[in-house]
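[scheduler] slot 2 assigned
[scheduler] job type: sequence-to-structure, two independent chains
[scheduler] chain ordering preserved from manifest
[runner] begin chain α
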Amino acid sequence: MNYFAHAFRFVGRARFVTGTALPDWLSVVNRRLRFRPPRLHQAAHHRDQNVSELVAGVKQHLEDDRRFHNCEAFSRCLVTVLQEVRPFLNGMGIPPVFLSHLLVEVLLDAQLVQSRRADVVRYYADLESVDPDWTEWATGEILGQPVSGLGHFIRLFCRERILLDYADNVHLLRRLNQVMRRLRLPDLSDSFQNALVASRPIVTAHAEELLRALDAPE
């Protein structure tokens, strides 16, 4: 799942919403660091209740991912998007399943952003209301070690408003290529916009079922 899909049900709880973004932010700032259950359990009882609320958001993110990636709708959607993506990747060195997985998540966010404009505004307001330097400190408390550069990246994330780029294929392709470069993978060509055009209705058709999996009883 991507940023907004994790957070849209919780807008208004600023530190919780910030926590839902933290695992993805951490993967950009320091890919070697992960939120481990023992540390999360310990930090959930932190003396500062604001840290505990941040931890609750992180745990929500991890639980959402588990449910989302294990639901049948995700598997079906992934396979169908993969069929659209694969012809554009021959010999490029980009794993087709990885890119299809990324597209399902990003295009689900695109659909949510389109249908929940007011919540997108509230989402960014929540993120901007939490001091990035505090978030960097609190993340270090949770992990048991400092996370240099996190505060700077949060400011960049809020300024860039990447969610608003998902509706336009040109802008979305630029964002995808930022991911490719960060992972030292080749850029996607302009022709990949055709895969985006074909994949959008596939994800939209599965969106309700994908989101329903987040709250389904187990």
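[runner] end chain α
[runner] begin chain β
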Amino acid sequence: MADTWLVVGLGNPGSRYESTRHNVGQMVVDELAARRSESFRAHKAQARVAETWLRPGGAKLVLAKPNSFMNVSGGPVSALANFYSIAPERVVVVHDELDIPFDTIKLKTGGGHGGHNGVRDVAKALDSPEFPRVRVGIGRPPGRQDAADWVLDPFGATERKTLPILVGDAADAVEQLISEGLVAAQQRFHAPRE
């Protein structure tokens, strides 16, 4: 299992939350599974999982969507990491990020949680913050709208036009992070767009 990666899309379970900003991480993991014609199945770690490969002969990917709510994502992530014997540095967490503008992707390993309760819970459960993160920008709410309400709202009509591209780019970022490393992925996705 030396070249196995766990890629977790954070979000909330159920149809009520499927198209919300907070679930963009799960949308990215869905895209990675769709590219490989894989479907998710129930796993005893309280998650839905698809086992696949980065490419034929490449790294094994365990794509996962916790069945828990965002703020308690750590339990399923830790259970999956233990089940597959995957160290934190090979657990890629894909999540929404308020402090990054919509349609922007940033990657990092370690550091703080930036107030993101799902990331905080994963770091606590893994007993380490040293896992790679693909942060998908959703931007701050307009006016005085509460951030907690904003993340649980569906993407707006204008955002939905760009969302498939953003999700595809984030899936590309996951693939490049795993195949070429963090720095190569950062150089591509942190560069200003033409």
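[runner] end chain β
[qc] chain β: Helices lie at 24-35, 74-83, 117-126, 147-151, 157-180, 182-189.
[scheduler] slot 2 released
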